[in-house]
């Protein structure tokens, strides 16, 4: 409170300079991070609610920097998106995920696990994604049915004509497309009719409070009912408590993901989990 307005301004401005500097530095560091082996993939298991069997995983990127430490994707993905670096890193993640998944043993009931890869809005520009996906599948031999792509609701809803054409091309490669962070984009359930997706992932912000916030519970219930009416799979993410899992499975939510079920694990641990028949 002792600080005058003018000093305040100078303080903020210096703080802002600092933030910009850090960002530029981070961007420079991120540029060679893949080649230096600092970026690695972890896998968060996704379970069928019906019998709680692991049926697939979501790929999540981690950046282990030698001096900056572990930088979470919530920080560096945004830098990668704004700088355009995601257009270089994204395809590498996709290819690496396919290479890994094709080596996984099948589960006891003979089914291959799916691998779900996040695709940034920027990767949808230019229209190269379907060809990239086809290349990755061909080069690695991963069956298309085992690859899922997670597109954010906002990226897809932005331009529906474009989205419909893109989704159509993606579907022709045989992969499945899920809308990520569903419910946060204000697009409303009616858009599900226009965009041909295979599934929606209920955003973790709705799951977090669903056991005590009647609005969140009502919304989640409505998403599940609506999606099922349209023949779309529903995945819930961010499940941290048993009560959330129970509420979701009572409502027919198909798939479940969250710390209560499993935190993200390494590729080696994925194989161990499949082999132990979980
Ligand atoms: P997302 O796609 O919504 O991924 C789910 C995030 O929630 C992950 O954080 C995951 O670790 C976290 N999570 C999982 N279970 C729980 C839970 O029970 N409670 C809570 N509170 N969180 C949980 P993470 O790994 O930090 O990733 C953050 C975001 O970074 C992702 O959000 C995704 O948007 C982005 N991201 C991560 N990897 C990639 C990637 O390879 N490519 C792109 N384009 N984006 C990525
Ligand atoms: Ca995701
Ligand atoms: Ca999400
Ligand atoms: Ca709420």
Question: Which helices and strands appear, and what pairs or packs with what?
Answer:
Blueprint: H1 5-31, E1 39-48, E2 54-65, E3 69-71, H2 73-83, H3 86-101, E4 114-119, H4 129-140, E5 147-152, H5 153-157, H6 160-173, E6 176-182, H7 191-194, E7 199-202, H8 204-208, H9 214-229, E8 233-236, H10 242-250, E9 255-256, H11 267-275
Helix pairs in contact: 1-2, 3-4, 4-6
One calcium ion binds at residues 180-181, 201, 203, 237.
Would you write up a description of this structure?
- The protein has 278 residues and is of the alpha/beta class.
- The protein has 11 helices and 9 strands.
- β2 (54-65) and β3 (69-71) form a beta hairpin.
- α1 (5-31) crosses α2 and α4 (129-140) packs parallel to α6.
- One calcium ion is lined by residues 58, 118, 150, 180.
Structural class: alpha/beta
Unreliable segments of 5+ consecutive residues:
none
Radius of gyration: 20 Å
Main sheet summary: 8 strands, mixed, barrel
Note the beta-strand portion: 15-25%
Strand order of the largest sheet: 1-2-4-5-6-7-8-9
Instruction: Determine the number of helices (DSSP H or I, runs of at least 4 residues).
Output: 11
Which whole number gives the mean pLDDT?
A: 90
Query: How many E-type strands?
Result: 9
Query: What is the straight-line distance between the termini?
Result: 58 Å
Ions, cofactors and other ligands present here are:
ligand C2E, calcium ion
Helix percentage range = 40-55%
- Along the chain, the helix and strand elements come as HEEEHHEHEHHEHEHHEHEH
Shape: globular
């Amino acid at each position: 409170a002792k600080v005058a307005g003018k000093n305040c301004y100078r303080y903020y401005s210096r703080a802002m300079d600092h933030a910009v500097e850090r960002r530029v530095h981070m961007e420079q560091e991120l540029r060679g991070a893949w080649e230096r082996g600092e970026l690695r993939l972890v896998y968060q298991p996704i379970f069928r609610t019906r019998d709680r069997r692991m049926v697939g995983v979501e790929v999540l990127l981690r950046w282990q920097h030698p001096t900056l430490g572990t930088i979470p994707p919530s920080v560096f993905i945004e830098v990668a998106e704004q700088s355009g670096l995601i257009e270089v890193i994204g395809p590498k993640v996709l290819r690496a995920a396919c290479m890994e998944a094709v080596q996984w043993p099948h589960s006891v009931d003979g089914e291959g696990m799916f691998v779900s890869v996040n695709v940034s809005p920027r990767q949808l520009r230019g229209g190269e994604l379907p060809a990239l996906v086809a290349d990755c599948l061909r080069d690695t031999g991963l069956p298309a049915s085992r690859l899922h792509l997670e597109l954010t609701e906002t990226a897809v809803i932005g331009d529906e004509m474009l989205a419909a054409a893109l989704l159509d091309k993606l579907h022709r490669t045989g992969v499945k497309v899920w809308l990520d962070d569903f419910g946060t984009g204000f697009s409303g359930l009616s858009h599900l009719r226009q965009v041909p997706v295979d599934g929606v992932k209920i955003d973790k912000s709705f799951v977090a409070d669903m056991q005590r916030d009647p609005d969140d519970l009502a919304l989640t219930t409505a998403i599940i009912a609506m999606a099922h009416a349209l023949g779309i799979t529903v995945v819930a993410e961010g499940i941290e408590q048993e009560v959330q899992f129970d509420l979701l499975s009572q409502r027919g939510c198909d798939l479940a993901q969250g710390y209560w079920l499993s935190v993200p694990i390494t590729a080696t641990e994925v194989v161990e989990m499949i082999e132990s028949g979980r």
